[in-house]
Amino acid sequence: MAGNKWEWLGLDGLDGWWLSRRVFTHAMMERLTGEIRKSEARHAGELVLAIEHDTPGHSRETSIRALEVFGRLKVWDTPMRTGLLLYISLNKHKFEIVADRGIGVDPKQWDDICTILQTRFAARQYEQGLLQAIAAIEAVLQTSCGGQPSGDDGRNHLPDAPVLL
Q1: Long-range contacts of range 31-38, CB-CB < 8 Å, 24 or more positions apart?
Q2: Model pTM?
Q3: pLDDT tens-place string over residues 68-111
Q4: CB within 8 A of 94, min separation 6: which ones?
Q5: Of 160, 158, 141, the residue nearest 74 (C-alpha)
Q6: Which residues lie closer than 8 Å to 117 by C-beta, 6 or more apart?
Q7: Is 149's pLDDT higher than 50?
Q8: Domain 25-144 has CATH 3.10.310.50
């Protein structure tokens, strides 16, 4: 039987809901917010972490849903076009990274970060996986858009707190 057992039974939303309530606690969200804030102080990128417990039925493809969330959360709305979305679909156990035009990176680097998340989440190491992914994203952004560009005002244009959808 291929795929997630909950998805096969039509109950994959319950799995995502359970994870979002039991694993992604307020304390964990505060720690992730702090890591994102520290990371953004070291480069011109703007990281938005979006965690969705139950992907809507109209979004069969996680990559398309990630693009939709990228637009709805206005991740593109930064002066230097250095917004980046790390999208997590808990019920589908999928991860997507969507980067704006100002971040010139080989897509394989994003795939490698998603593989780290896949491995850590499979081992139920959710927070460790996210912290490792944030650190890896920081390293990529320091190389791609390090420092504060002269055209940026140094402000934080996007929220640091993870968004639960």
Answers
A1: 31/127, 31/131, 32/127, 32/130, 32/131, 32/134, 32/162, 33/160, 33/161, 33/162, 35/131, 35/134, 35/135, 36/134, 36/160, 36/161, 36/162, 37/156, 37/160
A2: 0.85
A3: 999 999 999 888 899 999 999 988 889 999 999 999 899 999 99
A4: 62, 88
A5: 158
A6: 88, 95, 129, 130, 133
A7: no
A8: yes
